[in-house]
Specification:
This protein is an alpha+beta fold. Helix content is 52%, strand content 8%.
Length: 191
């Protein structure tokens, strides 16, 4: 067992141990996350999800979420050899498995989040402060609506935002058509 100057458990530093506990809890077969990974592959499927580097075929028909689920489950099953996370952390192989589990769960959570996260809009300025600080905030609960807002207090519904975007697109298309028509006219005059 290693001694950690800033604390830790077994062969793991404290941050590794905390991540391992978090991942271990999420990797339980009945956790919402594991159920999500198992079911997500059945919702939408693309052969592009999984590529086989050594083959000329475009992919194998297994959703990436299913592969992640199976790998997390495999590591979790290996960890069942120890009584708990702390016992596994005190064994070199167990600590290695805990680090792998933390990495796999973190990667899966990042690639296939269970809920939408707020996202910045970089193509449009705020209508009030004229900064590129607009954020789309997804619904937070059943029946809630997405909103677009700015730290300055400016806010609009997603529908209002989409109408504004459509208006800008129509204006840009009209400007392109006008520029093309002007270019054709100037060519005719010079010919």
């Amino acid at each position: 067992m290693n001694d950690h100057p800033e604390g830790g458990v077994g062969y793991l530093e404290m941050r590794e141990y905390n991540k391992a506990r978090w991942a271990y809890d999420l990797s339980h077969p009945t956790s919402a996350f594991m159920q999500w990974l198992r079911e997500a592959g059945n919702v939408s499927f693309s052969a592009e999800d999984v590529r086989v580097e050594s083959s000329s075929s475009p992919g194998i028909p297994i959703p990436a979420t299913k592969l992640a689920h199976d790998e997390i489950q495999r590591i979790s099953n290996e960890l069942n050899k120890w009584a708990d996370v702390e016992a596994a952390a005190n064994d070199k192989f167990g600590a290695s498995l805990l680090i792998d589990l933390g990495r796999e769960v973190s990667t899966a959570m990042h690639r296939w989040p269970m809920e939408d996260k707020p996202r910045r809009i970089q193509e449009l300025m705020c209508g009030e402060c004229e900064q590129f600080t607009l954020v789309v905030r997804p619904p937070r609960f059943e029946g809630d609506h997405s909103i677009v807002n700015c730290p300055c207090g400016y806010s609009m519904t997603l529908e209002e935002f989409e109408q504004l975007v459509d208006m800008f697109k129509e204006e840009a298309d009209a400007n392109k058509r006008k520029a093309l028509a002007d270019a054709r006219r100037s060519r005719r005059k010079s010919a």
